[in-house]
Specification:
By secondary structure, this protein is an all-alpha fold. The protein has one domain: Four Helix Bundle (Hemerythrin (Met), subunit A), CATH 1.20.120. About 80% of the residues lie in helices and about 0% in strands. The protein is built from five helices and no strands. Helix 3 runs antiparallel to helix 4. The mean pLDDT is about 95.
Length: about 130
Amino acid sequence: MNPKVWSLLGRAHEDLAVAGELLQGSHPEHAASAAYYGMFHAAEALLLSIGIEVSSHGATHAAFGLHFAKTRKLSPDLHRNLIQAFNKRVAADYDVSVKLTPEEARTLLEQAQEVVAAAEDYLNTAASGP
C-alpha cells in the first residue's frame, strides 16, 4: 500500500489529538476545525488506498461518498458526519459571529474519532489482504 496512505492516517490521528487539546483549552471553534481535518485526512487516506487522489474538499467528500458510503464499504453515517463537520468548520472559520458550544465541538470530535477508527480498520484489513 502507498506509504502516503499511512502518513495521511497518522495526520488524522494528530488532528484528533489537537482537537482534544483545543477542546480542553476552551476553544470549541478551533477544536471543531481540527476534528474535521481528522475526518478529511482519513477520507483522503481511504481514497488513496484505492488509487484515487483528489485536490479539493468537495471532490474528497464526493469520492468518499461514492466509493465508501454508497457501496457500504463503510457506514453512510460517516459520510454524513464528514459533510456536516465541513459545514460547521467553514461556518466557524469564516463567520466570526458563529460560536460553537463545547458540546457541539465534543460531538464533532467523537464523530471524527469514529471516522478515523473506521478508516484505520478498513486500511488494516485491506493491507493484510484476503
